Amino acid sequence: MKKGQIRKALSGFYYVFSEGQTYQTRARGNFRNRNLTPLVGDYVMFESDNLTDGYVLELLPRHNELVRPPVANIDQGVIVMSCVEPNFSSNLLDRFLVTLEYEAIRPIIYLTKVDLLNDDGYQEILEVKKGYEAIGYQVILPSLDSDLEATEAILRLFDGKLTVFMGQTGAGKSTLLNRLSPELGLKTGEISTSLGRGRHTTRHVELIPLGGGLVGDTPGFSAIDFMEITVPELTKQFPEINEAADFCKFRECKHVHEPKCDVKKQVEAGVILKSRYQHYLQFLEEIEKRKPVYGKNKK
């Protein structure tokens, strides 16, 4: 047996990279019976006599995983959000951030289509940048004149990391990756003006060597459901709310109607962004109304 990493999954085949070679493999027959699905990014044990006919025999333990995009063992996620066409959505951004926080994946926010903004719009986006940086997130915002500096800044983050790209459909993930590495030739799609969103242009997940690390280009999507996060866990996925929660009177405070809630106090004082608190309340309601899901649970 050999050890390798799945770098691409396509049409039932898993392409495993091991010692400088890529092997085309299939999953072992009993994986389905054991409810196991190999993911791109998985480290595996496999056997193969040649480069085109091998079998994945064992999945090694994962550090984390995402369902959309279906990738395992991720170090960081670049959330690509458009400033306009489609319009910037702080709600969707916070959904991505909560998802990454829950899986212990470092978020990096990258804002696109800055050149389409007028001066007032650019100032508004600058305020958004400041707000999220105050929480502790890294936000990359290209200048109005050139995105070269922003491109170089993000390229420096890849070294030794497995990075996935996610974000709004039509925000320009593939365009950004093509700029980072023109030889990729990834397909880009036009925005559907009638729907106000983009067409899905990425057909499969593949890890691409770039900047000394591995980068996955993944499908964009416009909705995220919190299928595993529980009510007590939600607070922990908002760093600034979690920090303020230590000073609430009640340990199990949900920060809704409870008295002497430091979270609500900081929202009123402008320390915690009102939009973040409103999204927390919305996500809390969604989780409380969700049907019970039995599976993994993070304490």
From TrEMBL:
Domain EngC GTPase: 72-222
GO MF assignments: GTP binding; GTPase activity; metal ion binding; rRNA binding
Keywords, ordered alphabetically: Cytoplasm, GTP-binding, Hydrolase, Metal-binding, Nucleotide-binding, Ribosome biogenesis, RNA-binding, rRNA-binding, Zinc
Enzyme Commission designation: 3.6.1.-
EC class of the enzyme, as a word: hydrolase
Any Gene Ontology CC annotation: cytoplasm
Binding site for Zn(2+): 248, 253, 255, 261
Domain CP-type G: 63-224
Needed cofactors: Zn(2+)
Cofactor note: Binds 1 zinc ion per subunit.
Keyword Magnesium found: no
Cellular compartment(s): Cytoplasm
Subunit structure: Monomer. Associates with 30S ribosomal subunit, binds 16S rRNA.
Protein's UniProt name: Small ribosomal subunit biogenesis GTPase RsgA
